[in-house]
Every structure is written in C-alpha cells, then in structure tokens.
Amino acid sequence: MRKVILFSSETVLLLIALMTASTFVLTPAGRSGRLQAQERTRVASSELEDVYLRWPLPEGAEEYAEIDGRRLHELVVEQAEIARRYRDQGHPQFWGRITGTSSDAESAEWLAAKFRDIGLSDVRLQPFDLAPQWMPQSWEVSVTSEGQTLVIESAQPFYRAPGTTGKGLDLEAVYVGLGSEADFAGRDVRGKAVFTFSMLGAPSEDALRRAEAKGAAAVFDVLMLPGNMRYQAYPSGTDLPVFSVGSEDGFAVRDLIAAASPGRTPRVHVAMNVEMTPGLETALVWGTLPGRTDETIYLIAHRDGWFDAAGDNASGVASMIGLAQYYSKMPRSERRRTILFVGLDGHHNSGEGQGVGRMWMAGQRDELFAKTALMINVEHPSTVLTTVRPRYQSGDEIVWSNTYTAQQWYAGGPSRPELRAIAVAAFREFGVSTYLEPNPQPPAGDLGRLYRFVPGVATSDFLHYFHTEEETPETVPWTGLEASTRAYARIIDAVNELDLSDLKRPYEAEPPN
Ligand SMILES: [Zn+2]
C-alpha cells in the first residue's frame, strides 16, 4: 500500500533537496558483482547469483566454457559505477552514461582500456562533434490541494521536453484516465496539467498528443507498473512539458483530485531548467583482432544509456568485451576473419546529432563493409524475467523469476537462410530463449541503421525496468549474459565456415514506413 505523504509547503524545498539524494548504493563488494539488497525482490541481491538458472554447457561446446557469465557481470557493475559517479557529481536527476557528457568520455576511456588490456590492436577513439544536446539541469513537480503539498519525486521529463521560464507553471490538475477520446469527453483541459495513465502492454491511446491538441499546458503520463519508478522516455511528439510519473505518485494525485472539494481543484507546480548544451563531443571506440584474412566480422555495442543502464546497454558492452577476450586467446591462424569491435556512441539522444557514430558507419558502408561476413549488434542480451501483479497473488508488485527473458531477434533476414539456421541452432544450444519468429527488421537499436548493408544478427529485450532508475546490474542475470555470449561465439565460428559469397547480398532497400 502506498503511504500517501502530504507535506506542508514549508517543507517542500527541503524535500526537493532530499529527494535528489542517491537512492541506490553500490556496496564496496559491488566489484564482485554482488549488490546490496533492495526491497523490490525478497531474495537478497547477494543471493541472486546463486538462484538464477544456469544452462549447462552442452556436449561438444566445451571450448566456450571460458566465457564466464559471472566475470561478464563484473563489467556490467563497472559501467553502472561510471553512471553513478556522474550522478554523484552534481547530476542527481538526469544521469547515466549520457552522450556528450563526462560519463560518455569515461565510458569511452574505460572501454579503450579494456581493449588494450586484452591486446587488441589499433585501439582508438574516433571523435564526433555533437549538435547542441538536451540537458535538463533540474526540475520540480508538486501538487497542492487543500493547503498541503505532495512532491512528485518520480517525475522525469520526456527527452527533449521544453523547460519552463520564470518561476515555472502553476496549473489546475485534470484527470483523463487512459487518455482516449472518451476519457477526454466533457473535460476542459485547456491551459491545465493533464494526468493520464499508461501501461506497458496496453494499446497506446496517443493521449499526449490528444492533450496537446485540446490545449493542455503540461502532461503527466503515469506509468502503471507497480512501484514509483523514474522512467526516462523518448520524445513525446508534442511541444509541451511532458513528464512520466511513477504509479504511486500518479495514483496519489488521482486521489487528491477525487477528494478535492468543489471549486478547489488541486494545483500543479512545474518548473524545469533545460539547456541545449553546445560544443559537446562523443566517440566511437575501436579495437581490432586481426585474422588470417582481410574479411571482417563486426561486433558493435552502444555505450550510452540512462541511469545505471545495466541492461541497456552495459550488458551488451560486457558481452562484446567477453567475445574480445575469448577470441584474443586463440592464435591468429585460427581466426579466419579479422574481428572489429566498436563501442558505439549510442542513440538515446534523440533528435539532431543522434547516433552520429552509426550514421558515419552507414555513410562509409562501401569502405567498411565490402568484405564483411557478419555484424552482431550486442544489445540487451540478458534481462531478468519479471511478472507484473501475478494472477491470484495479492501484492501490487513486480515479481522476479530465477531466469532471463526470451528475446526479440533477427538473423540476416529472409535472403540468408543459412545465417538464420546458424543463429537458431546457437540459441538452442546455449539456452538463449527467443521469440518464435524473427523480427522482420532487427529489434529496435543500432543494427536498424546498418543491417541493410551487412549480414546482421541481433537479439534484444525491453522489459519492465527498461529505461528506469531501477535498471540496475541485478536486473541482468549473469546466466543470460553467459548464454547469449556463448551463442554469439558459436555464431561467429559457424559463420567462419561459410564463404563471403554465402552471406553477402546486395544492399536492401529501406523498408516503407
Ligand atoms: Zn539499447
């Protein structure tokens, strides 16, 4: 049950200061992959390592035993620590490994150091200038009703949301449920703060744009997942200040609206200081493992992400590093093709300047990919399988399982049945759960801009903690990291049994939107 905490307005400023204090702590033992217990699962975090189901190494796959999920998980923790350092250096609300910031630079140097330690050659950072980047400096949202004030501490602005000016906005609150046309019927939202509710898995009602069209001044999209998560959303498609709000805060506001006396509708205060910061830069991080030939295999993983960004995409970067370690131990004569490892700048910075690294790669396709047999985009390879409000259980909570989720996947598309067969066999061999059918195009992520030029493989998943402050290293089962990384290695080895002509195809046309 939510404890609805109402504060006198005098204490609000103090609370705004307090709420920005860190809510998660990595223990000193974090380096070993063991994280402090948190209350969202009853299994202590220190025990998670032992409860996750591990797929046994199959017969005939002994060579992949060296790919050790526990060690890979330590790399996830190290990247979360980069993000938390950035948070603790004066960025308590909008934090992560954010493109163009010092955490981006630290992540690039960290990855380059890993590549050098492994012994990759030609390790380098390829810098890119960025267009001015959306950087919210601070914000505050509170709701006042009948003389008392509720601070909406879970409020997180949608990416690229405009800031406010002066002392901010002071608006009447209005509730529109799911935000369909029926929900808006009979309600005047002009110049008001609209509260609408959405749930992962429910159809989109396009409530944000509907609210804007009807004259709203600000919109609050309440995430109905249990808890009170801060969720960083992509742009709202409106020109309004739009915030996502955690479920506990959202229901509390709804209850204030319901309880208000006639004519005394709750008021919403919103203030947000946004800068479009010019002059920032990011980088691709390159490393090479030369093979017997100049034919190439690319392994790419985006380095950026919000909050800890443990699943998205510290897990992918960790898996990529694991593959670099694995293949570096093999004599060059046993590596048919040269493997290029690329830490991408990423793509969370939607809008101008987004994904500059991969766009550059797409532009250089004739030079980079003329002899490319395979590109694996290593993105979100392991996510804990969770269930929301399980049927016949009474708790309003997200319940954890002892395993990882099935992933969306893509393996070369319909013109490359051999590659698809290799991938399916590898997923099966190592216990990588997948959706039954491949995606027509790669799952959302970086291969989407490159797959038309290369034989591409990607697996990915996006579940309840995705893009939230609770997407901590614990949400990345080491067992899934191990399974996916071993499967990627099997795919690389099987592809090396094929000739380039078995895999290369003419560039594909862009799919119709
Ligand atoms: Zn991602």
Could you give the topology of this structure?
Elements lengths: L11 H8 L25 H7 L17 H20 L7 E2 L4 H17 L2 E9 L3 E13 L2 E4 L4 E2 L11 E7 L5 H4 L8 E6 L8 H7 L4 E6 L18 E4 L1 H13 L7 E11 L3 E9 L6 E7 L2 E2 L3 H19 L9 E7 L11 H8 L1 H4 L3 E7 L5 E5 L9 E7 L3 E4 L5 H14 L25 E5 L17 H18 L4 H4 L10
Parallel strand pairs: 6-7, 7-8, 8-9, 12-14, 12-15, 15-19
Antiparallel strand pairs: 1-13, 2-11, 3-4, 3-10, 5-9, 6-10, 11-14, 16-17, 18-19
Helix pairs in contact: 3-4, 3-8, 3-12, 4-8, 8-12, 11-12
This protein binds zinc ion.
End-to-end CA span: 44 Å
Largest sheet: 8 strands, mixed
How much strand? Answer: 15-25%
What structural class do the secondary elements suggest?
alpha/beta
Low-confidence stretches: 1-38
Tell me what you see in this structure:
With 513 residues, the protein is an alpha/beta fold. The chain has helices at 12-19, 45-51, 69-88, 102-118, 181-184, 207-213, 247-259, 310-328, 356-363, 365-368, 417-430, 478-495, 500-503; strands at residues 96-97, 121-129, 133-145, 148-151, 156-157, 169-175, 193-198, 218-223, 242-245, 267-277, 281-289, 296-302, 305-306, 338-344, 372-378, 384-388, 398-404, 408-411, 456-460. The strands form 4 sheets. Strands 4-3-10-6-7-8-9-5 form an 8-stranded mixed beta sheet, with helices on both faces. A 7-stranded mixed beta sheet has the order 2-11-14-12-15-19-18, with helices on both faces. A two-stranded antiparallel ribbon has the order 1-13. Strand 7, helix 6 (207-213) and strand 8 (218-223) form a beta-alpha-beta unit. Helix 3 (69-88) packs antiparallel against helix 4, helix 3 crosses helix 8 and helix 3 (69-88) packs across helix 12. The longest helix has 20 residues, at 69-88. Zinc ion binds at residues 302, 312-313, 379-380, 445.
